[in-house]
Amino acid sequence: MAVAAGLTVANIYYNQPMLERMHADVAGELVTYVPTATQIGYAIGLLFLVPLGDLVERRGLIVAQCLGLAVALAAVALAPTGALIVAASLLVGLMGAVAQQIIPLAANLAPPDKRGGIVGTVMAGLLCGILLSRTVAGVVAEHWGWRAMFWLAVPLALLTALLAALRLPRSAPERTGHSYMGLLRSLRGLWREFPQLRIATWIQSCQFAAFSVFWTVLSLRLEARFELGPQVAGLFGVLGVVGVLAAPIAGRVADAGGPRRVVAAAAVVTLASWVVFGLWASIAGLVVGVLLLDFAVQGSQVSNQSIIYALRPEARSRINTVYMTSMFVAGGLASAGATAAWHLYGWTGVSALGLAVSLAGLALQPLSLRSARRL
């Protein structure tokens, strides 16, 4: 499950270190919005496809989405214009949401006293996919061009489908009594019923927005300030793997009963990372900042998921839908805002945006701690 989650989610992030090369190859500014389109597509997939995990057998659903992902990746590789690349990237995001079918499956199969650690392990695989995807894409784009990366991703998606078909257990959904439309309608009820879900979603949306602001414009920053190409941008993903260490640790802390303290500490560290980005205008500053940012965001993610997965076991896919859809909408808006800030105000504007969303996440921490005391 960790391998499948990593291989599928990687497709959402290949474009980020290659963005400067894509922009140079395809006329017009529209192609710079490819990360935004991909994340919005991911949010749509979370909203309309992930709830199916509470209605149909999950293994078959995962295989089908992986096959659809292979088709979408080939469409990006073939697209001749910025508009078609953006449209195909939306489809990549839509089908790439399959990663979020895998995490609720892991939570369902795990014993309650080990759920945080097991979800943390699967999340570690997913995080490796997020971070190392940038490294692989940067190297491939540097030597063979950005389209080659998407062609390479096609057989990887097909391999993931085969891996899922052979290795994942069949998982019959819980009896919910809902039709598909009923499942979608129930999302609002879950949001209204659980204040813990609302607070965790708001906090992680701010965390992921801070994360997306940085990674969206990193390749543009490296090219403009340091004259460095996509290979170096991708190497920052290797640094970010330190965030993977946060996932199992945060999961074990969550199992011991203290996820909200991890979330609060992570919000402080995220803010500190953007202070570093804004004040330390060198490669060393970027390195230190990305280590802080990735560790904080991933630790917060696993801790918040341990909170929401305990709310209603038979509705985990839908709870994950509410949480992750909101998070990726925030990420998509943050990517768009970061791109606009870059074009208008450069790195200063990007840093100000990162600080603003980090402060918003920190300001929400008292709500989280109060909700813990009421339980």
From TrEMBL:
This protein's UniProt keywords: Membrane, Transmembrane, Transmembrane helix
Listed InterPro entries: MFS, MFS_dom, MFS_trans_sf
Species: Novosphingobium aureum
Keyword Transmembrane helix: yes
Sequence intervals crossing the membrane: 30-49, 61-79, 85-106, 118-136, 148-166, 232-250, 323-344, 350-369
Stated name of the protein: MFS transporter
Annotated ranges, domain Major facilitator superfamily (MFS) profile: 1-373
An example molecular function term from Gene Ontology annotations: transmembrane transporter activity
Pfam families: MFS_1
